[in-house]
UniProtKB/TrEMBL annotation:
Region (Disordered): 253-281
UniProt-recorded name of the protein: Vesicle transport v-SNARE N-terminal domain-containing protein
Extent of Acidic residues compositional bias: 269-281
GO biological process: intracellular protein transport; vesicle-mediated transport
High-level lineage: Eukaryota, Fungi, Dikarya, Ascomycota, Saccharomycotina
Domain Vesicle transport v-SNARE N-terminal: residue ranges: 1-81
SUPFAM superfamilies the UniProt entry points to: t-snare proteins (SSF47661)
InterPro entries to which the protein is assigned, alphabetical: SNARE, Trafficking_Pga2, v-SNARE_N_sf, Vesicle_trsprt_v-SNARE_N
Domain of life: Eukaryota
Pfam families: PGA2, V-SNARE
Gene3D superfamilies given in the database record: t-snare proteins (1.20.58.400)
Length: 281
């Protein structure tokens, strides 16, 4: 590994031991001491972050990177157990001491400061305790999620780096074949859907045409229905047309016969009148 990573490691261990010792002697802590401890905690977290970045950016082998990542996870767990949690406990105790420093005082104003009663102090302590527990759970969940994502990322990178040229080309061929087959399947499915839609449209138009033909057969102009002998629609329609044409021909023939009878009657009347005139003369 690089010299920068080793220097980070030495700096972290030095600051870690001094901060741990200061926390262990912080039973009679003050606000300034707690602030210094918080600054040291932030510095330690920043050093761990820089070490993590350095491990990811170095060109070392995958096995060596895995060892350093495991080492950094152990350092982070030790930091949480030996510094972060005790520091939170100190902060909570300090806040409790500040709140209870006025215990037994009256709610009257003393030097311009109005003290709270016991019930208000207890409510503040309970709220502060709940907030600390919630914050700790959120930090733990965030740490677990970050570790999980980090492990997944490192495994994926290690898996990609361990693939040789043959496996890489095989993977490319498999992915390319899958994409090609997927497109062909989608195109074939679209063609089948279009063909089914065309067939459905043709069937619908045919049904509409048959319904229109049935309405024409059942029109009021054709009141007298011919006797059905199991013929088809076209045959019945043809017979009905022939019957209509035959009826029209019979009607025309009757009209002509009536006209001929009228002409012959008129001619006979005129002849009888001429004969009567001649006889009178």
């Amino acid at each position: 590994m690089s010299n920068l990573l080793e220097s980070y490691d030495v700096e972290f261990k030095t600051l870690y031991e001094s901060t741990k010792l200061e926390i262990s002697n912080g039973s009679s802590s003050k606000t300034t001491t707690i602030r210094n401890l918080e600054i040291n905690k932030d510095d330690l977290l920043e050093i761990l972050e820089q070490m993590n970045i350095e491990v990811n950016n170095t060109g070392s082998s995958t096995e060596e990177k895995s060892k350093w990542r495991s080492y950094l996870r152990n350092l982070k767990n030790d930091l949480q157990k030996d510094i972060v949690d005790p520091l939170n406990k100190l902060i909570e105790d300090e806040n409790r001491n500040v709140l209870f420093s006025t215990q037994g005082a009256t709610p009257e104003v003393d030097n311009g400061i109005s003290y709270m009663d016991e019930e208000q102090r207890q409510q503040l302590l309970d709220s502060h305790h709940i907030l600390n527990k919630t914050n700790k759970r959120l930090m733990d969940a965030q740490r677990v999620a970050m570790d999980l994502l980090e492990n997944i990322k490192h495994r994926a990178i290690a898996r990609i780096q361990s693939i040789d040229h043959k496996q890489f080309f095989r993977l490319v061929i498999i992915i390319g074949g899958y994409i090609l087959l997927r497109r062909l399947a989608q195109r074939e499915l679209a063609k089948r859907q279009l063909a089914n839609q065309i067939k459905a449209d043709q069937k619908r138009k045919k049904n509409q045409l048959m319904e229109g033909t049935d309405e024409l057969y059942n029109d009021g102009k054709h009141d007298k229905e011919p006797t059905a002998f199991g013929w088809g629609n076209k045959t019945r329609y043809r017979v009905k047309k022939q019957q209509e044409m035959l009826g029209q021909a019979i009607d025309n023939l009757k009209k002509r016969q009536q006209q001929q009878q009228q002409y012959s009657t008129a001619y006979n009347d005129d002849s009888d009148e001429d004969i009567a005139d001649l006889l009178e003369d």
